[in-house]
């Protein structure tokens, strides 16, 4: 029998509660009773019973009613009202300021603390240490002496939490190490089983000295395990169907995931030997096909290369097939043209087409003796036919034809120039002015009699079928900077050859830079801006003329229209000049001769004029250009000459080129805008 009266006063209430008759009135667990005993033993205030006036809840001493602290133990006898925060005596049941009953408020506050206590314990049980620490710490902020029931619990809880954390993190480190060992042994299933024992709350925890969390290891091992099973299924299915073409890389990948597999290692060796045999066989086919192409037996090359299954074809094989098909198509067209020419006794076009073909294949070190013989025979027949024709009649007819052609062209171009000059230019948001250039036909290139002409200027008729706008000047530094925000002309290597200002021609730009400018301008304006084709550029430059320059053949007045060596470089003005300072051509375009070389859209090929389309030519295809590049690089056309060049390089027909990726001091551009 327990005599409660003989117990220390601070333990009497706690022990009495443990002896209550009904279950609901007793402690609900040993942990709850333990905490109550610890609290009572520590000397914290007991607010679970009603206090008399002046009674200290800690030592039960009766004090004067106006005391702020106990005369015996010094405990605080004043607290804040839990409703209005006014100071009241701890034994007061109601606040004299707001009238709030304290007992239900205390009970409510204790219930909230109990909920925090229970949640902190739950977090600890789930090994959620940070959440448990944060929740328990929030309870220590309570200073009201009536709400200190969990002060002793917090100390005990903190101790238990640290013990649990230390133990569980040590266990986690062992589990991670074990899982990594399984991974290194390629036993992904065992590794996943080990990691399955890690508490969910610790799966994203990193251990000191380690790189992987349990979650990362689970993802990695799951991926490897899944891929391994997938590869095993593919290999078994392909082997069963005897479909081993392309199987080697699959088996190789499988063995990287699980090396100790003798059957798969044996299969890998067998497949490697077979692929080596196939590679040797295919190389023999490639060698024979290459010899066939070199000797213009393109159909044999295609037939041989097509014997290689598509799955075994390399980029080299596909390129050879494409090249052989292209040459075969050209050869067949030339052969047919020569045969038809013989029937019509008209060999001019056919022999020119054959010459272009033979020149092109010669660049690839290909000889076609049979077609060369056909061409020689055609030329011989052409000569015989020509000798049988009356020279007088032929001369008269040719003269009449030339006079009529020149007259029509001049009339047409003069009319077009008059129409253009009557129109006002348009402008855009970055200050460019553009003139509309009408459709028309002109003679591109130069006649053989033109002074200083080059071999790549073969004269031929070209028709531009659609009108377009062309910028009246070269792109200026101000326009470039307003759109692109850069200053490429600020090249320290050539700083002494630069003048800066918004109206100076933008230079030191590559073809790629110019294309990027056009793309950005198109996006800004909502219109299509681009570089002119070489044909568009020369058509606009000539403005209806067929002379060396757009103003005629008199070199003495070139300085009125162009900045070139004689009026720039030779007198110390070694830089790109301000645009629009000289006279324009008949289309109202400035600086089409000199100042800066102007980029065109086309790839450059010296004999392209011999095969150029009559209508709207856009230049040779990439693989036909000088370096046979199939990329966006290669040599692109430049026109117009520059301030550094002699007069002959500023002629309307003069053609130049430069690598598209490279920037140069003398290079700039002007833009074309397509009509809506």
Structural write-up:
- It contains 17 helices and 13 strands.
- The strands form four sheets. Strands 3-4-7-13-8 form a five-stranded antiparallel β-sheet.
- With 676 residues, it is α+β, with helices and mostly antiparallel strands.
- Helix 6 packs antiparallel against helix 7 (214-240), helix 8 runs antiparallel to helix 9 and helix 12 (348-363) packs antiparallel against helix 13.
- The radius of gyration is 48 Å and the shape is elongated.
- It has helices at residues 9-18, 30-41, 102-125, 129-139, 151-184, 188-195, 214-240, 248-257, 262-294, 298-306, 315-344, 348-363, 369-388, 391-422, 477-484, 511-525, 534-542, and strands at residues 78-80, 87-89, 426-427, 433-437, 440-444, 460-464, 468-471, 529-530, 597-603, 635-639, 655-659, 667-668, 672-674.
Order of strands across the widest beta sheet?
Answer: 3-4-7-13-8
Strand count: 13
Helix content, binned percent: 40-55%
Low-confidence parts, pLDDT < 50 over ≥5 residues?
A: 389-394, 396-411, 625-632
Rg (CA only):
48 Å
Rough outline: elongated
Q: Report how far apart the termini are.
A: 109 Å
Q: Give the overall pLDDT as a whole number.
A: 85
Structural class: alpha+beta
Percentage of residues in DSSP E strands: 5-15%
Oligomer status: single chain
Order of helices and strands: HHEEHHHHHHHHHHHHEEEEEHHEHEEEEE
In DSSP terms (H or I, runs of 4 or more residues), the helix count works out at 17
Query: Major sheet, described briefly?
Result: 5 strands, antiparallel
């Amino acid at each position: 029998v327990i005599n409660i009266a003989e117990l220390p006063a601070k333990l009497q209430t706690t022990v009495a509660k443990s002896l209550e008759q009904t279950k609901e009135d007793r402690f609900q667990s040993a942990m709850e009773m333990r905490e109550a005993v610890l609290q009572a033993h520590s000397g914290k205030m007991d607010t679970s019973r009603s206090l008399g006036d002046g009674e200290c809840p800690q030592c039960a001493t009766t004090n004067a009613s106006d005391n702020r602290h106990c005369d015996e133990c010094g405990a605080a006898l004043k607290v804040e009202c839990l409703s209005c925060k006014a100071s009241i005596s701890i034994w007061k049941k109601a606040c004299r300021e707001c009238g709030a009953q304290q007992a239900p408020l205390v009970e409510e506050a204790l219930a909230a603390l109990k909920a925090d206590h229970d949640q902190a314990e739950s977090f600890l049980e789930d090994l959620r240490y940070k959440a448990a620490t944060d929740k328990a710490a929030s309870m220590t902020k309570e200073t009201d002496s009536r709400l200190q029931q969990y002060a002793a619990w917090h100390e005990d809880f903190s101790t238990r939490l640290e013990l649990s954390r230390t133990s569980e993190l040590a266990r986690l480190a062992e589990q991670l190490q074990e899982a990594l060992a399984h991974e290194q042994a390629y036993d992904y299933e065992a590794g996943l089983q080990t990691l399955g024992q890690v508490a969910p709350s610790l799966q994203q925890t990193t251990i000191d000295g380690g790189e992987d969390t349990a979650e990362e290891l689970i993802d990695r091992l799951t991926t490897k395990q899944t891929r391994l099973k997938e590869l095993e299924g593919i290999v078994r299915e392909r082997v069963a169907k005897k479909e081993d073409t392309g199987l080697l890389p699959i088996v190789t990948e499988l063995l990287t995931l699980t090396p100790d597999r003798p059957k798969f290692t044996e299969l890998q060796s067998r497949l490697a030997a077979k692929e080596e045999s196939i590679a040797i066989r295919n190389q023999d086919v490639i060698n024979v096909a290459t010899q066939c192409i070199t000797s213009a037996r393109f159909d044999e090359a295609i037939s041989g290369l097509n014997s290689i299954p598509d799955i075994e074809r390399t980029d080299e094989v596909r390129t050879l097939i494409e090249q052989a098909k292209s040459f075969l198509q050209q050869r067949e067209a030339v052969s047919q043209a020569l045969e038809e020419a013989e029937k019509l006794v008209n060999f001019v076009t056919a022999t020119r087409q054959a010459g272009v073909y033979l020149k092109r294949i010669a660049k690839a070190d290909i000889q076609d003796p049979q077609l060369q013989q056909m061409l020689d025979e055609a030329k011989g027949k052409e000569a015989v036919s020509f000798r049988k024709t009356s020279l007088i009649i032929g001369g008269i007819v040719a003269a009449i034809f030339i006079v009529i052609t020149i007259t029509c062209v001049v009339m047409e171009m003069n009319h077009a120039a008059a129409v253009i000059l009557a129109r006002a230019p348009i402008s855009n948001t970055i200050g460019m002015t553009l003139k509309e250039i009408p459709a028309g036909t002109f003679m591109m290139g130069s006649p053989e009699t033109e002074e200083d002409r080059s071999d790549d200027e073969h004269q031929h008729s070209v028709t531009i079928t659609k009108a377009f706008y062309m910028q009246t000047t070269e792109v200026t530094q101000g326009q470039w900077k307003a759109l692109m925000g850069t200053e490429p002309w600020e090249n320290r290597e050539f700083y002494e050859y630069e003048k800066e200002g918004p109206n100076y021609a933008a230079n030191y730009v590559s073809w790629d830079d110019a294309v990027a400018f056009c793309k950005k301008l198109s996006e800004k304006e909502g219109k299509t801006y681009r570089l002119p084709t070489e044909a568009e550029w020369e058509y606009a430059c000539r403005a209806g003329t067929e002379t060396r320059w757009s103003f005629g053949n008199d070199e003495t007045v070139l300085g009125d229209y162009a900045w070139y060596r004689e009026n720039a470089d030779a007198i110390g003005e070694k830089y790109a000049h301000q645009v629009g300072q000289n006279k324009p051509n008949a289309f109202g375009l400035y600086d089409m001769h000199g100042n800066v070389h102007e980029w065109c859209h086309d790839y450059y090929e010296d004999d392209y004029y011999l095969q150029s389309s009559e209508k709207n030519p856009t230049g040779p295809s990439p693989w036909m250009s000088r370096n046979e590049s199939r990329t966006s690089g290669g040599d692109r056309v430049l026109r117009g000459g520059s301030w550094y060049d002699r007069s002959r390089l500023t002629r309307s027909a003069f053609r130049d080129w430069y690598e598209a990726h490279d920037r140069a001091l003398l290079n700039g551009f002007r833009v074309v805008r397509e009509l809506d």
